[in-house]
Amino acid sequence: MKRFMYLLFPCLFSLFLVDCAADGNGYFMYADFWCAVYSREQAQVEYLVDWYFNKEFMMQYNSTVGNWTGFTPAGLNTASMLNGDKYDILQRKIERQLICVNNVGLVLNITEENRAEPSVTLVETTSSSHETMLVCSAYDFYPKYIKVAWHQNGQEVTSGVTVSDVMTNGDWTYQVHSYLEYTPGRQDRVSCVVEHASLSEPKILDWDPSLNHSERSYLIGGVCALLLGAVFLSLGLIQYKRKSCDPRFSNTL
Ligand SMILES: *[C@@H]1O[C@H](CO)[C@@H](O)[C@H](O)[C@H]1NC(C)=O
Fold first, then answer.
1. Atom of ligand 1 at shortest distance to CA of 60?
2. Cα–Cα distances in Å, from 114 out to 79, 109, 120, 183?
3. pTM over 0.70
4. Model confidence over 130-170: pLDDT tens digits?
5. How far, in Å, CA of 96 to CA of 43, rounded?
6. Which domains are seen in the chain, by residue range?
7. CB 3.0–4.6 Å: which of 74, 100, 176, 208 could bond 35 by disulfide?
8. Ligand 1: which of 64, 67, 71, 96 to mutate, judged by most atoms within 8 Å of the beta carbon?
9. In whole angstroms, what is the distance from residue 148 CA to residue 137 CA?
10. Going by CA atoms, what residue is nearest to atom 5 of ligand 1?
11. CA pair distance 123, 179, nearest whole angstrom
12. Pairing state of beta strands 174-181 and 167-168?
């Protein structure tokens, strides 16, 4: 612990974080400076510093709280030391202004210009444990924040719901998948409700419990086969009739 503290202090005051990020053995310290922007209201802009040591989240500065919060013993010590330092407090206020507040307009304009509407699908699937699940997927949306909810008879349900992480598509857009445990044959009205910044109102997809997609495709396949069979049968009959009327064939019989 002593050694950690000793290593930590000079780093916190250093502007050259790279020096702290690698000792002779490689990676050990990491800090993430970021802004949380909720609206164009500058007073609401939050400036945050997440501080990690050996990949452990040890303390955070949150400008709304106005000071550092420690999460590990070393983090608690360092946080209380920094919170008593009026220069650190001043430095973070200036950083908030320069890094976050001055760039809010720019960040929001870029976000708005690149907005992309999610395309939403709702299908039935079977999980590895052979349970039936409904999968609601939202594809190709931006920005990242999205809400995918399940409604059963008009009420939001949260039990039996699993949501994947929001995954990047490799470009600037994202996708997410939400799974609902589902008992086939129950006469519930189930729908998937997607809310996103690009949508003026939520996208709602209703599940049709009478026929799921695979049953529907079997049915369509069956009807097609039946029709095809009927066509061949009638062709065969016509041919047979022709042949039996043809005198050449009658003669040979
Ligand atoms: C910062 O602190 C405020 C007040 O406690 C809290 O509401 C907010 O969620 C925090 N911000 C983040 C990004 O955690």
1. 14
2. 38, 9, 19, 39
3. no
4. 888 999 999 999 989 999 999 998 899 999 999 999 999 99
5. 11
6. 6-112 (3.10.320.10), 119-210 (2.60.40.10)
7. 100
8. 64
9. 9
10. 65
11. 10
12. antiparallel
* Side-chain-facing half-sphere of 202: CA atoms under 13 Å: 14
pLDDT in tens, 203-250: 999 998 765 555 666 677 777 788 888 888 888 887 877 766 555 555
Q: Specify the pairing of strand 29-36 against strand 46-53.
A: antiparallel
d(CA 72, CA 84): 18
- Ligand 1 centroid from CA 46, angstroms: 8
DSSP output for 7-38: HHHHHHH-S-HHHHHEETTEE-EEEEEEEE--
Question: How far is CA 160 from each of CA 97, 124, 132, 185, 197, rounded to the nearest angstrom?
Answer: 44, 15, 11, 17, 26
